[in-house]
Amino acid sequence: MSLEVLERSSQASDSAVPILFVHGILSGAWIWDVYFMPWFAERGFRPYALSLRGHGNSPAGKPLDQLALHDFVADVRQTVLRIKQATGREPILVGHSMGGMVVQRYLSEYQAPAAVLMCSVPPQGMMPLSISSTWTNPLLAMQMAKVYSFPQAADISLARDILFYHPVAEVDLARWFSAPQRESMRLLWDLNIALPIVSRVLKTPISVIGARHDRLVPSGIVQWTASTYRCSLDWVNAGHAVMLEQNWEETAQVLHDSIQAQ
Fold first, then answer.
1. What does the pLDDT look like over 232-243, one tens digit per residue?
2. How far is C-alpha 176 from the geometric centre of its chain's CA atoms?
3. What is the Cα–Cα distance from 179 to 200, expressed in whole angstroms?
4. Fewer CB within 10 A of the end CB, N or C, for the chain?
5. 5-261 has which CATH code?
6. Sequence ranges of the domains in the chain
7. Distance (Å, whole) CA 41 – CA 100
8. Which residues are 5's β-sheet partners?
9. Whole-number Cα distances in Å, 193 to 60, 101, 120, 123, 157
């Protein structure tokens, strides 16, 4: 399958460390290319971002609701091998939100030089997130259920309320979220049952980054992920859409430092 993979070249092309960014639900590779990919390229990395099948400009290949978590793991594997062929080395993996679970499931089957989970679905799956959201903010839980099933019917202001902590321009909201893509119902089910194998994930150096004002993946869940993997945990002063927030560069620096520490 021909997947959309964005790439930014680095001036240090021969020695540049490749990074593969994996996006979350209702998103695509583009979300990393707004700010993060140019920033990391300027600092000597060779960044790539993948649109998982059925997202961005990657074809689904089959009916959307049949897409499963193992399909996304296969997408990451295909892209890792493509990057290894181009650079001679496998990339560091960075997964955000649902993409964090894709990375964890990938690491249950393969190893990587290092991995960072940002605002990630925990290794215990989506159920703890759903319970937490329903208990603390039932209105948010109902809104998110609607967004997952009918994103085109959601008011664009909902994206601002759910994803951002800092002010965001209306023109940017319209540019980024005016045409969200519906998610696979099979995937949402898999996020509860196709859980990673922690002992295998631990074969790869891993770290966790959480957002202090994240309404989707709250601090307790982030801490649970870090404690499960017995790894370092860093915090950024942002909402869930850390790579698009007004202070995105602070988050990029935290990610950079986390990678360097591994």
1. 999 999 999 999
2. 16
3. 37
4. N
5. 3.40.50.1820
6. 5-261
7. 22
8. 50
9. 22, 12, 16, 10, 32
